[in-house]
């Protein structure tokens, strides 16, 4: 048994005829492609992916994140942000003031319309009352006119009768000149 264990633990033979691969391992073989190996940041071999290549290019380029160009750009952007915040707060304030003015104008318009409606209602009531009193006076005057017309008619009938009577009396009292 010791012999079989030694045979299984012995290294494989190095002759090409005993290898399991069908391809030849010679560097001059036309079918063989060159192998590209990249190492990641740990120095371990890895596959070539877009994320790793971008990391590799940024790690290889000597860019200092605290460089003066970055600080200037950050400061400029911060100033722009501050200016925009100020502009925004100013615009908000202007909008609030305009809203306040609009509210005041609407309130004044409401009060004005309310006053107008009240005046219109009062004028309507007054005109109705005036029309009613004038119509009443007109009816009274028409009634008086009818009464006076009747009195005139009765008086004129009475005068005609008295005039006729006088004329008849004058005919009888006056001498006859007729021959």
From TrEMBL:
InterPro entries: FAM76 (IPR032017). Residues 39-69 have a biased composition (Polar residues). Transmembrane segments: none annotated. Residues 167-179 have a biased composition (Low complexity). GO terms for cellular component: nuclear speck. Residues 115-129, 137-149 have a biased composition (Basic and acidic residues). Pfam families: FAM76. It comes from the Eukaryota. Residues 1-69, 115-179 are annotated as: Disordered. Keywords: Coiled coil. PANTHER family: LD21662P. Belongs to the FAM76 family. This is Uncharacterized protein. It comes from Dreissena polymorpha (Zebra mussel).
